[in-house]
Amino acid sequence: VQLVELGGGLVQAGGSLRLSCAASGSTSSIAVMGWYRQVPGKQRELVASITSNGGRTNYADSVKGRFTISRDNAKNTMYLQMNSLKPEDTAVYYCNAKGWLGLSNLDAWGQGTLVTVSS
Questions:
Q1: CB count in 10 Å sphere of residue 1
Q2: pLDDT, tens digit only, all 119 positions of the chain
Q3: 22 - beta bridge partners?
Q4: pLDDT score of 53
Q5: What is the C-alpha to C-alpha distance for residues 38 and 84, in angstroms, rounded to an integer?
Q6: Which DSSP category does 89 fall into?
Q7: What's the DSSP call for residue 84?
Q8: Residue 51 and residue 58: Cα distance in Å, rounded?
Q9: What is the predicted pLDDT for the residue at 112?
Q10: Quick check: 69 and 52 in contact, CB under 8 A?
């Protein structure tokens, strides 16, 4: 499975951005997709995740009510709508896909996209 993120950039505090993650390859093996973020010197943290049928979502407390994760399985694409952005949301955002490829675990990552929120 290959993942490509798009949509990062520079935005003022209070603004919005939408990230997208396009999956290709053995996409039928994906069970859960998620967005993670990382700032220098800190561990990568889960921002939000969504199950393959979109039925269950999970959010970090820090983004609840501001970010919305969704996926379009027909397009093999996941989205992260980010509203009311804060400077502390500045990070490199990574797309992740987890599942099973036969007997092997799938744990694929995109290359990351930088989101910078100015105060």
A1: 20
A2: 999 999 999 999 999 999 999 999 999 999 999 999 999 999 999 999 999 877 799 999 999 999 999 999 999 999 999 999 999 999 999 999 999 988 889 999 999 999 999 99
A3: 4, 77
A4: 79
A5: 19
A6: G
A7: S
A8: 9
A9: 96
A10: no
Place of tokens 């970090």: 60
Report CA-CA distances (Å) from 15 to 48, 60, 71, 87, 114. 19, 19, 22, 11, 15
- In the chain, the N- to C-terminal Cα span, in Å, equals 37
| Of 42, 22, 29, the residue nearest 92 (C-alpha) | 42
CB-count burial class (<10 Å; 0-12, 13-18, 19+) for 51: middle
Quick one: DSSP state of residue 26?
A: S
Task: With H, G, I as helix, E, B as strand and everything else as coil, classify residue 79.
Answer: strand
